[in-house]
Design a protein that fits this description.
Blueprint lengths: L8 E3 L17 E5 L7 H4 L11 E5 L15 H15 L4 E6 L1 H15 L7 E5 L17 H8 L12 H26 L8 E6 L21 E6 L11 H8 L8
Parallel strand pairs: 2-3, 2-4, 4-5, 5-6, 6-7
Antiparallel strand pairs: 1-3
């Protein structure tokens, strides 16, 4: 599969943090799906000097960053199918999926797509800063215009279109943000109760104004395997503020789980 023409691509660091072109260290590969409207740099930049960097493969959906001129995808089922195909094409023996906010739903659907293909499952599905999919939706994005969507999410942090560059930023970000958020509403409307067979790790931030832990722990109903919930300091973007959330994914073993 040609990843770019297949409308899904992966981005990663080209070299280890110490420089050179040596092989990545052994261990788990973590396929990361960023939050709504954002691209691969949201994960790559914070960990540019981290030993974790060589384990990260970050989804780059069209319509953002180096794919800004491409039309956005607006179907999470399609995104999950494409990511599942891409993961399989890489032939990774030990891998995990890590979805941040909107990205958690894409990671969930990727897991479901792998199950439908009877393919190897991820060692761990990690969902961060995302309410369990069977809970009532806090916001119906299909009823909001792009600027209304941005205002609805502004209290989460990371969205600020004020200032001299605000209009340029809005023009670059709003199409992807709108497509991702509306895709969430449609996906959750059609999903119903869902359960996957791999372990699930659900992470939340202590100061997340939009997704408190009581909306994260019900992810335990979404797996027939082990479940663990973790809380980290920070708001909605806590996965990008510390190495600890991703390090937990690399270190996770079945015996670490609490059911």
């Amino acid at each position: 599969m040609n990843q770019e023409h297949g409308r899904l691509a992966l981005r990663s660091f080209r070299t280890p943090p110490t420089g050179g072109d040596g092989p990545a260290p052994p261990g788990r590969t973590v396929y990361c799906v960023p939050a709504a409207g954002t691209g691969a740099r949201s994960f790559l930049l914070p960990f540019a000097r981290s030993p974790l960097r060589t384990h990260l493969r970050v989804v780059q959906l069209p319509g953002r960053e180096d794919r800004l001129g491409e039309p956005c995808l607006d179907d999470i089922t399609r995104m999950g199918a494409l990511l599942a195909e891409t993961v399989l094409s890489e032939g990774t023996d030990d891998f995990a999926l890590y979805g941040h906010s909107f990205g958690a739903l894409v990671a969930l659907e990727t897991t479901r797509a792998l199950e439908r293909l009877r393919a190897p499952a991820p060692a761990l599905l990690t969902v961060a800063a995302c309410a369990a999919p069977h809970l009532p939706q806090a916001v119906r994005f299909d009823r909001l215009a792009p600027r209304q969507i941005a205002r609805a999410l502004r209290n989460l942090g990371g969205l600020d279109f004020d200032g001299p560059l605000g209009e340029d930023m809005a023009a670059a970000v709003l199409p992807a943000l709108t497509a991702d958020c509306r895709a969430c509403t449609r996906y959750l409307d059609a999903l119903g109760q869902v359960s996957v067979g791999c372990p699930v790790l659900a992470q939340g931030g202590t100061r997340d104004p939009g997704v408190p832990m009581e909306r994260i722990t019900p992810w335990q109903d979404c797996t027939t395997s082990a479940f663990t919930a973790q809380t980290y300091p920070g708001g909605h973007f806590f996965p990008l503020e510390s190495e600890h959330p991703l390090a937990a994914v690399l270190d996770w073993q079945p015996e670490h789980a609490r059911t």
